[in-house]
Design brief:
Shape: globular
Number of strands: 2
Helix content: over 70%
Structural class: mainly alpha
Low-confidence stretches: 1-9, 666-682
Number of helices: 28
Distance between the termini: 32 Å
Order of helices and strands: EEHHHHHHHHHHHHHHHHHHHHHHHHHHHH
Strand content: under 5%
Mean pLDDT: 84
Length: 682
């Protein structure tokens, strides 16, 4: 039926009004909805059955077998050829390097336990190194921070941590840069090594500790080896990327001159990739600091041990004092390596304030001063051990403890009410949905969701991961960890969308927030637990809040980059068609940045999982508690090792599913007119 419209030429029929066909839900949406239905029906109909709950003190046959294996290793370590000719010499070599730097900077094993270079010489030498690889501002920061360590009463602990980080970074570069070069030059090597690096970066830091402590015993060697494994992927990836990023015409020009492969590598590829390699060193250094502090659980000396003891005794003041030292050390290491990467940039020499000759004269003069300070520290007691009269650490501890007590007394109405409201209203119901649903219903729901995202291959991988977790006997604890991880990730993504969109749409907001986010990513995971312990006490809520704050920077930055990458032409077209800012965000920018959002969710999950596991130190429970208990009680070692494996497979499951969501193609938007002129055509 048509209507009549009168115009100047008379009465003519108007074109018929056509309705836009109703869009049917996609197959993926239907499958995901079906997975949710299976899960909820399983919970409602079979609540509390087949939950595979294992009390904290009970062990399975597998856990007992792992305990027996631990005892066998301890009994046969001295005679077994694998340990005698491989593991023990490797441990001795790493111990030798670590003890060399510990003896220089921290403490010797004889006499007064003073280091070879006292605090005065350490400050001078490290300040000169910062000046040589960076600039005067970075050198001043380094000197100030190390003097402040002494004022805190933590100079020896800080130098222990610095010595272990230095050892780990040197060994990481010794292994990582050659592997990165091979991966950059040879495509086959890159194809083989990339999945291994993906796997290594998926694992939370806790996972490395138990097996390495079993093989190499507890102590600095195990801590350094764990740190090398954890810190190697960034420098390998970035070195390979820097070599592959060299333009093809540049390589062809080099080959036309008759250069060999080795000559091309040394004279062209490595010099042109220098800045990227130094960026990899920066990332590996920050990863090494994070791992060294957590390795305090396997007797790594330094600031990490102070934090662990403080967290276990709920001593907020001591934890904050040591946590502040870790943050400051992270800032120094980040600034020094960042300054080195900037000096490695092409054309950086043209922007220097001083000529090369003047700089060499300055470095020569300051080197003489640094060597004089080293000599003073070796000959005078006041320059060898930091004066105790200048120690203000107890004052800091007392002030923080008093402030924490005041907050608990005066803000408890808000903090406790907020904690209990979230716990009873969100955490407990969602955790119950996971832990009280029969395990086979949960497995079926996750398998259906995996099939919807990635097909049969992903469904098979996720089902296998869940099967391994069931075999390990830690299903219920895994669900507790998964519940906290998913709740925290949901909040992280909400923050990522809010602040990421704001940064992507406004350069001013980006300039304000990005330095804060960069600073947040430099801090090790341990540090985030400390302030929330004082506010909310030792509960799983504390671990989840710390996980949110720890993971939010990476999710926000990825989201912001995804929003920024959208073509301005598309946004302008939407605005010119009459779309409001809200419609531009919801109808154009977020849909077009969907893959970035999925990538942000992937990285947020990995960060949150690492933090929730570490949160076992403040009462988070779940798999993290099993791991920590395995370190403390030898009878629970097998259960702790199994918990580490469960974390591995839980991380693989979450990583693969979110990667599949990120890799899924964007849904095509049908062409044609929209029902409203204010809805942008994308």
């Amino acid at each position: 039926m048509s209507t009549l419209v009168r115009d100047r030429t008379g009465v003519q029929p108007a074109p018929p009004v056509t309705k836009e066909p109703r869009r049917r839900p996609s197959r993926r949406t239907t499958l995901l909805a079906g997975a949710a239905v299976v899960w909820i029906l399983g919970f409602l109909a079979l609540h509390g059955t087949s939950t595979l709950t294992l009390p904290a003190s009970e062990l399975t046959d597998l856990h007992r077998s792992l305990n027996q294996f631990n005892a066998w290793v301890a009994a046969n370590r001295a005679d077994n050829p694998v340990f005698l000719y491989i593991f023990t010499p490797l441990r001795a070599a790493v111990d030798g390097v670590a003890n060399f730097f510990i003896t220089i900077f921290a403490a010797s094993s004889t006499g007064l336990r003073l280091p070879e270079i006292g605090w005065f010489g350490t400050v001078g030498l490290l300040g000169w190194i910062a000046l040589a690889v960076g600039n005067a501002r970075v050198a001043l920061l380094t000197v100030s921070v190390f003097i402040f360590f002494g004022l805190q009463g933590l100079f020896v602990e800080a130098t222990y941590t610095f010595a272990l980080v230095l050892t780990a970074v040197l060994l990481t570069l010794l292994v990582g840069i050659p592997l990165g070069v091979l991966a950059g030059v040879y495509g086959r090597v890159a194809k083989v090594i990339t999945p291994v690096l993906d796997f290594m970066q998926t694992l939370p830091t806790f996972v490395y500790l138990a097996p390495l402590a079993l093989i190499f015993l507890i102590g600095p060697a195990s801590a350094v080896i764990a740190t090398v494994i954890y810190a190697a992927p960034p420098v390998i990836r970035l070195t390979a990327h820097g070599i592959r990023a060299i333009p093809e015409n540049t390589r062809e020009a080099s080959d036309s001159l008759g250069t060999t492969g080795l000559q091309r590598l040394l004279t062209l590829q490595l010099p042109m990739a220098r800045r990227t390699v130094v960026m990899g060193i920066n990332q590996s250094t920050m990863a090494a600091l994070s791992m060294v502090t957590i390795a305090a659980l396997i007797a790594a000396p330094g600031l990490g041990q102070v934090v662990v003891r403080a967290l276990q005794s709920l001593d907020v003041g001591t934890a904050v004092n040591a946590g502040l030292s870790i943050v400051l050390l992270a800032i120094v290491l980040d600034r020094v390596t960042t300054a080195a990467s900037r000096r490695a940039e092409p054309g950086a020499a043209r922007n220097r304030r001083f000529s090369r000759r003047t700089r060499y004269l300055i470095l020569g003069g300051t080197l003489v001063l640094a060597l004089a300070m080293v000599q003073f520290s070796r000959s005078m007691l006041w320059a060898a051990a930091f004066p105790k009269d200048l120690n203000i650490g107890p004052m800091i501890v007392q002030a923080v403890s008093s402030a924490s007590q005041w907050m608990q007394n005066n803000l408890s109405l808000f903090t406790v009410s907020f904690r209990e409201a979230v716990t009873t209203g969100v955490l407990n119901p969602f955790q119950s949905l996971l832990t009280d649903t029969p395990f086979y219903a949960v497995v079926a729901a996750i398998a259906i969701a995996a099939y919807a995202l990635g097909g049969w291959k992903l469904a098979t991988i996720t089902t296998a991961c869940l099967g391994v977790i069931i075999y390990l006997g830690l299903w219920s604890d895994s669900m507790v960890t998964l519940a906290g991880t998913l709740v925290a990730t949901l909040v992280v993504m909400i923050l990522g969308v809010i602040f990421g969109v704001a940064m992507g749409r406004s350069e001013r907001v980006d300039q304000i927030l990005r330095p804060m986010l960069d600073a947040g990513q430099t801090m090790p995971a341990f540090v985030y637990l400390v302030p929330f312990l004082g506010l909310f006490g030792a509960t799983r809520f504390t671990a989840i809040i710390a996980g949110i704050i720890y993971a939010a920077p990476v999710a926000i930055k990825i989201t912001a980059d995804g929003i920024t990458a959208i073509s301005p032409t598309v946004v302008e077209a939407a605005v010119s068609s009459g779309s409001t800012p809200w419609q531009v965000i919801t109808k154009v920018q977020l849909p077009m940045a969907r893959q970035s959002l999925a990538l942000a969710a992937n990285q947020g999950l990995i960060y949150v999982l690492a933090m929730v596991v570490v949160g076992a130190l403040v009462g988070a429970g779940g798999l993290g508690y099993d791991v920590v208990a395995g370190f403390v009680q030898s009878s629970l070692f097998g259960k702790g090792l199994a918990a580490g494996l469960a974390i591995v497979f839980l991380g693989i499951l979450l990583d693969r599913m979110t990667q599949a969501a990120a890799a899924a193609p964007l849904r095509k938007i049908p062409s044609g007119k929209t029902r409203s002129t204010k809805t942008p055509a994308t």
